[in-house]
Amino acid sequence: MMLLIPAVAPKAPAEKERTTMVTLVDAPPPPPPPPPPPPPPPEDKPPPPVKNLSPPKPSPVPPPPEAPVVDVPEPRPNDIVTPPSPPSPPAQPSDIGASVDISSKNMNPPKYPPAAFRAGVQGEVILIVDVDANGNVTNVSVEKSSRNRDLDRAAMDAARKWKFNASTVNGQKAAGRVRVPVNFALN
After folding, report:
1. Whose CA, among 15, 57, 118, 183, lies 20 to 30 Å from 4?
2. What's 180's domain CATH number?
3. Based on the structure, what is the number of domains in the chain?
């Protein structure tokens, strides 16, 4: 048997270089120091002592002077004169409460909310509207809800645009309050 061995040893496979990449990251900055504690609340000072004040003493009222006695002779029948009747007072203007200007309400009717319309929601909202002396709306609130927020809001939004006839008190325009029903009905 014959063994054949090469004269030169075979080259060992070359090792591949291993490269390891290391990325250095700066350490995060330390958190900021906590804020200083708030100053303690000022101590409540006791209220100043209450002084007991006695009610002022009324000064004595001098007695009224005595009226001198005057003798008046008895009137005779022809001396008695009936005074004329006082003139009747002028007629007072009647007090009229504020009211809705129908033309304004018709020009600015409440808009039916689309979601309520699609859902078939109907109802009545009763509003309380505060009106100034010029008939302008100053405040609107719901006295009785329709039980649907969209209908209530639509009624309030429309009422804010309305003009009212101001109330009159003793012939003068005055601020007032009006109760206005608003119906939402599907026709």
Report:
1. 15
2. 3.30.1150.10
3. 1
